[in-house]
Design brief:
Elements lengths: L8 E5 L4 H12 L3 E6 L4 H8 L4 E3 L11 E4 L8 H8 L3 E4 H9 L3 E6 L4 H14 L5 E8 L4 E4 L5 E5 L14 E4 L13 H13 L6 E5 L3 H12 L3 E6 L6 E10 L5 E7 L2 E7 L5 H17 L3 H10 L8 E6 L2 E6 L4 H14 L5 E5 L4 H6 L1 H5 L7 E4 L15 H7 L5 E3 L3 H11 L5 E5 L4 H15 L1
Parallel strand pairs: 1-2, 1-4, 2-3, 4-5, 6-9, 6-10, 7-9, 10-11, 11-12, 12-13, 17-21, 18-19, 18-21, 19-20
Antiparallel strand pairs: 7-8, 13-14, 14-15, 16-17
Helix pairs in contact: 5-8, 5-9, 6-7, 8-9, 14-15
Length: 464
Amino acid sequence: MINFQQVREVHIVGIGGAGMSAIARVLQGKGVRVHGSDQRQSPLIDALAAEGIPVAIGHTAGNLGRADLVLISSAVLEDNAEVRAAKQQGIQVLDRPQFLGALTAGYDVIAIAGAHGKTTVTGMTTLLLLEAGLDPTYIVGGVMADLATNGHAGAGKHFVIEADEYRNTFLALKPAIAVVTNVEFDHPDSFPSERFVRMAFGNFVDNIRTGGTLIACNDDRLAHAIGASYHANGGNLMLYGQNEGVGLTWRATGIHANELGGVTFTARLGAEVMGDIHLRVPGDYNAINALAVLGVAEALGIKWAIARAALERFTGTARRFEILGDIDGIVVIDDYAHHPTQIRNVLRAVRQRYPGRRIVAAWEPHTFSRVRALHTDFMAAFADADHVVVLPIYAAREADDGTLTSDSLAQQIKHPSVEAFATLEEAIFRLTGQAQTGDVILMLGAGNEYIVGRRLVLELERTS
């Protein structure tokens, strides 16, 4: 176990990611000197530097400084120059799962897990605890628009954390409260099949500490099954959802678009109508996400009025339905959707928020393994778009064997209007030329598509 009283300086390899940058902010808040490195500059790295966390671009042994602990992201390989140098110098090297258990020890952990929705629910839950005056420590998988950060070391006893299933990272946590939004096959480089995903989430739930609470989505088949199993073994379970069901604690009815650009719904606690909540974030799925947060409030004894105020204050997180610009009636949105279910949901949300407008979906496929494993679902995910653009595949940690391309995907997508672009530069140029007043251009992916979106906004402004 790491003794943070003895850790003076930490170097983070891959600090520019959402999760690692949040850890850096928490460590700095605990009085630890933090620095890091990454492959490329980004707005997140610029923000860290402005907060006094220096980041080197590129990986060399000299970046380690006087670190007595080196933390590495899941994208960093064993042959990384800084990892090799740290081991040669006898500096302890830990990956994120090894580190998170120590970082969260001693807190009442509120862990938000799920294939989809966990960043939003984590952000909403963080605002809930802040609104209740509980001053939590938190790690969110995206920068919160309301707080302009994704991580903070609070003085309270609670630690709100986005619980990532990739490589079983969330098994390092021992939650007092766990949320499971949904369970769906993803990360084929980590899980061979849905059965292994189900097992991982089951193990995560088994780690809930004695006397803790599981809050699970009743609408999701596997989340419901995991919840039922946990309850059958004596665990405290809350179910939430839109569909009626036995034992349902929180339910949303009457979901509809509102004038805030989000959705309004009626919240019901058992048979009791609690009242309407007017969210600022769009999509029926966000009404369901909000129910999970009401479950957390119920478990913590936070009053309804405080929970409603927090949810109605929430304006989203970076790269989740993030509006990058509105130029001459052309709206550009970036969304982290990189799974077929996410793509379908966010396209429906765009239709709901911008009825009657032409929707251009610009998809950057994320990893070859994911596209291959979920190929059939991806090819049918774009029905709510008017035009589909396929960008070059974002390889991330994988190697390109040349057998899967944006061109081949464009030919197979089940949609009457699809085209592929060979480079991101071409995408920026062509989208700028094709954009028409009234268009909604939706960038979809978890890689570099946000760069295309931001550059597109600049080009549209320049040519306006």
